[in-house]
Design brief:
single chain; mainly alpha; Growth Hormone, Chain: A; 16 helices
């Protein structure tokens, strides 16, 4: 019988993670003013958060292979909730660096552990359900944007809003702890446990996750800039580019699993990544803001369900090292998410913004061409 409770709990932890991070994101301007840092310092501090998250991801893989994802996701989600008020209480740039390093570390662990639990649940269901979990992460972020924005409009102190979010998050994390699928009993053997080795398939999955999440990062940070600077739109109109991308990403993730079940993950990613490339090319060539907004929405449709298939495949390469392989692919993808905006920014010193979009377009094309091989591949016995 499918573990329905575990599926619902995993939906909830994805949404909780998106909500907690979203509450931090919507309050970044306020926290920036409280700590007295400038934009350049904020950029460096955010890199610290990303670096700490990557470290947490790598440690999470080993912990999951040893104890299972249930205790790891419970402890890490609880710790993430408890640490999220930290930025609101920071009064200097150095304090913000320290607290965000802790936040990033636990977020990295949660990221891998929730995906590992999702892989276990999907395996029990025997059909694709991974994309829907990622949709709930997006829905959690949307809830934070609405609720957090409302609290800001009501002039609620950021320390209060993030502290309340922490309490709610902790209670939810603890309430979910018994609903997750536990780790299977370890198999006793005489020899020591061997370290999971890198394989060509894991490396390819990681590189493709890097390529597509690089494109996702570009959409997050450059879609609004594209409309404002390249097409002369107002900031209000420019915001619709990011909104269109985010909305289509969320909606498609809610329904992508049905298409994956019908087509298979290899065919799905092959077609969807190419659609993403077409969408971003359309945005780069768009003659008007209206066309560009539609193109960014198409880009979101293309990317939405792809990366979850890589995570699912990584978690099933070897069940005994599922956490380690998932952490490697997740970590490489996360590096793409962080690197994408920086790569585009660097290239704009020499070429136009729309020309720089060639990098994520090529990444999508390569993913569309190579993903079918990666997702069909089987490790030798």
């Amino acid at each position: 019988m499918p573990p329905t409770r575990a599926r619902l709990a995993t939906f909830a932890v994805f949404a909780l993670n998106g909500f907690i991070l979203g509450m931090w994101i919507v309050n970044i301007p306020t926290i920036k003013d409280r700590t007295g840092i400038d934009q350049a310092e904020l950029g460096l501090i955010l890199l610290v958060l990303g670096g700490a998250a990557w470290v947490g991801m790598q440690l999470a893989g080993r912990a999951i292979d040893r104890w299972g994802s249930r205790p790891v996701v419970t402890v890490a989600a609880s710790a993430l909730a408890l640490t999220i008020p930290g930025p609101a209480f920071a009064t200097s740039g150095m304090q913000l660096v320290l607290v965000l390093a802790v936040v990033g570390f636990f977020n990295g662990i949660v990221d891998v552990a929730q995906n590992a639990q999702a892989v276990v649940v999907e395996r029990a269901y025997g059909r694709p359900i991974m994309a829907a979990f990622h949709a709930f992460f997006s829905l959690g972020g949307l809830l934070a944007a609405v609720l957090g924005g409302g609290l800001i409009a009501l002039d609620v102190d950021v320390r209060i809003s993030l502290s309340v979010a922490a309490v709610v998050g902790l209670l939810i994390a603890l309430a979910l702890r018994t609903s997750f699928v536990p780790a299977p009993a370890p198999v006793e053997d005489a020899g020591p446990r061997t370290r999971a080795s890198w394989t060509s398939r894991v490396l390819l999955l990681g590189l493709l996750a890097f390529a597509l999440l690089l494109g996702e990062g570009v959409a997050y940070d450059w879609s609004t800039v594209h409309l404002r600077d390249s097409l002369g739109s107002s900031e209000t109109v420019a915001a619709f580019a990011y909104g269109a991308f985010s909305i289509t990403m969320t909606i498609v993730r809610l329904f992508a699993d049905r298409v994956v079940a019908a087509w298979g993950p290899a065919v799905y990613v092959g077609r969807a990544a190419l659609l993403g490339a077409a969408g971003l090319l359309g945005a780069a060539l768009a003659p008007s803001a209206a066309v560009a907004i539609i193109a960014w929405a198409v880009f979101g449709v293309g990317l939405a369900g792809c990366v979850p298939q890589f995570f699912s495949a990584a978690g099933n390469v070897d069940e005994s090292a599922s956490g380690t392989y998932l952490a490697r692919v997740t970590g490489m993808g996360y590096l793409g998410l962080l690197a994408g905006p920086s790569i585009i920014g660097l290239l704009t010193h020499w070429v136009s913004l729309t020309t720089a979009f060639a990098v994520p377009i090529v990444g999508c094309l390569l993913a569309g061409l190579l993903a079918p091989s990666a997702l069909r591949a089987k490790e030798p016995a």
